[in-house]
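<instruction>
Derive structure tokens from the sequence

<record> Sequence and structure tokens follow
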Amino acid sequence: MIFSFRSYRKTLISFSRRTPCSLQLSRSFCWIPTSYMGINTENSKSFARRDRLLEIEKQVRTWWEESDAFVAESCEKPPEPGEKFFGNFPFPYMNGFLHLGHAFSLSKVEFAAAYHRLRGANVLFPFGFHCTGMPIKAAADKLAREIEQFGDPPVFPSPEEQEVSQQPEKEDASDGAQPAPDKFKGKKSKAAAKSGTQVYQWDIMRSFGLSQSEISRFKDPYYWLTFFPPLAVEDLKAFGLSVDWRRSFVTTDINPFFDSFVRWQMRKLKSAGKIVKDLRYTVYSPLDGQPCADHDRASGEGVQPQEYTLIKMEVVPPFPEKMRVLEGRKVFLAAATLRPETMFGQTNAWVLPEGKYGAFEINEKDVFILTQRAALNLAYQGFSRVPQKPSCLVDLTGQDLIGLPLKSPLTSNEVIYALPMLTILTDKGTGIVTSVPSDAPDDYMALHDLKAKPALRAKYGVKNEWVLPFEIIPIIQIPGFGDKPAEKVCTDMKIKSQNDKEKLAEAKRQTYLKGFTEGIMLVAEFKDRKVQEVKPIIRSKLIEMDQAIMYSEPEKRVVSRSGDECVVALTDQWYLIYGEPEWKRSAEECLAEMNLYADETRHGFEHTLSWLNQWACSRSFGLGTRIPWDEQYLVESLSDSTIYMAYYTVAHLLQDMDMYGKSSMVTPEEMTDEVWDFLFCGGPYPESSTIDSALLKKMKQEFEYWYPFDLRVSGKDLIQNHLTFCIYNHTAIMDKRHWPCGFRCNGHIMLNSEKMSKSTGNFRTLRQAIEEFSADATRFSLADAGDGVDDANFVFETANAAILRLTKEIAWMEEVLGAEASLRVGPPSTYADKVFANEINLAVQLTEQHYRSYMFREALKTGFYDLQAARDEYRFSCGAGGMNHDLVLRFMDVQTRLITPICPHYAEYVWRELLKKEGLVVKAGWPISDSPDLTLKRANKYLHDSIDLMRKLLQKQILGSKKANKQGAPVTQLIEDKRMTGLIFVNERYEGWKEECLRILQSKFNLETRSFAPDAEIMEALRSSDFGKAANFKEIQKLCMPFLRFKKDETLKLGVQALDLSLPFGEVEVLSENLDLIKRQLGLEHVEVLSASDPDALATAGSLVSLVRQNPPSPGSPTAIFLAN
């Protein structure tokens, strides 16, 4: 998975180059030279520009701190719409350093908060730190074990010694003994697998840059909580994050106020009937001895339990020699199926000949034959003689099972046999498969192969009587496939054998779902009833008759953070009843009113709400808050992270600016349920509370003012859990007016178009990025990386280019302001002035639209790239007259404000030091502008397109003349180095047959559908016109056809304006106002603008008039010729 903001994946760090401006840590770090990190150093190129930005950033942060720039205070009066903005971000997990994955998601809410602050809103942007769960505790415990085993500092075995110690013991081939089921057989990590040796937690801590003496302190899990959050604050401040740090907090019981808040939340949910204790299937880590939720997993996030019906196929005695030890027991081949209603059509059972199976004790009398993996799952679901420990009586192979006679429920065959199938997967189900060849294409072809190939039967010792007498049993009628759908689809698709895997997969796709949704039963008392209606009835009947049991396993492989493969366990613990119909309706109601900014995001939430069910909210291992009514359990890490945004509103008043809550005017014990209810749920004033009434009312005011939050930004991977939980919990606890307003989800981030990965070195911590590029250049590149839910791309070249752009812009402004007296004074008056002023107005309008929609890449384009391009064009257009003083200063003011949300340090420096403005730019207000003149915008585009066209015509005319001269043809002598005159011929209106064509197209264009009538209808209109009646219509028609095609295509591309008979501005006027610019752009001495319809004007072209006639001008497309003076 490409990195998003989720930081509980361990963030390794190696600190980048030390510079005079580099961030200094107050901890005992070992600095790692950048020459070992693949990062450019001072020796390879100059970093003066970057260092200048770092110096500016350090200076600006001092200004912000001195003025409390980002401290947010509520008001007594409730805010009007748009007056306040509360944005937040899922707090990162504190088992390492923040990286660019965090910064990317974080930048979205940072830019949004900065935009709202700039335009005058009262902005709250708080930030907390998550430490709940098992990763920190697991890492600390692992470190403690290493110190105990290898010393402090530890002396680890050499790689050679590790290889010897890791050699597996030889298994006794005679009995095929399985490892003890209660022994964990771990798998190597990626790093260990590559090196062949174990990766130690001590080495991971050293990779953080920690000294030997510091590392041992991390065996205390709570030390992690005091170490990493303060460093994260340092990094985020260096990043320029506009956070009210007074409201920061750390989760778990280390913070007694947050601990009290979570306890209240859990009691609130339980009293509302949203938390129950129940036996339920859940993904479970045997090593950790507790459920393994998404945040506890190294792989398999989002995987849920898959429920099967386990069919008990009784082995008919006498047993073969290898199974004699099972005499006196009821022995069953246990087959897992998702379609119990098809058991009426069984003709045999399938086993994998080379598969490894075992006979496992289920209870005192029953024995199941299946794979060890399935037996382990069953053992955690109450189906093992020894709870949670599979007891294997004898090891078997699939070959041992071939030919076993079986009594299977529901089938009309009295006895069926176990037969070989070569395509069984033993990592899914039980390794035993029921065979229903009437409905399952795989079963049909496998049985067909055995019947048709005597050699195949002989290879596996299959007797004829086990196969040949068994015919297909029709059990379900499927529309389009009949009562033998598997036979029909295999015949239609010409499938030859069970090895045609791709064709069989397609055959199953065609029949499987349709059989369930549209199939009609043909057998027993279920005849003529729908399959989907009788399936649960048949399953219940099989279980009641003791012919089947329920069985569950993970949909896909899940590995916990402790390294073991997870099972599905039937656990008795506390669950949040997500999916309960009434609660689900409230969640859907909340979602319907939220702004999600992308259809894909909404679809993700709708899908999650469709399947999300009970969620285990208690854990027995890790850090966190205790379940208040059952303190043997901790609150699970995703369950204490659902409404904590409300806690931000009062955190600063409770914690007195201490993220651990150790200093306060109140005690945690005073924060009773009645107090929390009063603050967040509209409860009555807590008369019995000893908290000062003024403080209580202030806290109440804070919540009522800031809530609901306006925007929460997250990676899209949290839709399936955290964000949906957030919706559910808000609807359960809070009044509807306090439900969330908006979520904005983004994709993950790549670095230079490749997956972000520590193992490949394509990785940057936030600190490294700031030191390598500066904070503002990093923010610039993050804004440019992308805004949608697709994966974004942080490009180092973009960050380096930003360093150059920002520093060059500072240098240009210093230069211009240093020579301010040379600027042209007076109001803007020239054509270039008007165009530039219009471009500034347009940038203000478009950039605000993009910021408001949280499309920051587009805001960067219109507010910086396009505006700079307009400035550069203006500088050239002004010529000798120079730039207008007021307009240049307006440009500097506007550009500085527009870039402020993305590059605030740069903007603040320019605002104060260069423009000499009062106050802070982050609160300067959105720039005021007039409505853009779109006609002027179009006229200017026409001007520059015309200049480009004329340049090409000039080159063509000169090159053509040279070529003709070489051939000796008589031509006008045009030599490049001679002084030249340009004659620009203009036709401002379509006339004649072109005018008629345009009028027809106008009448045949549908504005609503943006489409034209059929070509035949357009041609009929042309024939009916005056031109259609002309004697030379066929000649006119030949001219009309390409013109009609061109104008239709242009209309679909540009809009209906392409059908206008003339442009909305005077072409002659625009060109005449810019003769000086045209002369300078083309290197001409003289330029004239002439009407192509004026014979006298045409006469001035002399012998080159033929060029005008060959390329007649039309509206928007002048024709130019060039004469030597």
Notes: The longest helix spans residues 934-966. Residues 1-44, 166-197, 964-977 have pLDDT under 50 and may be disordered. DSSP finds 37 helices and 32 strands in the chain.
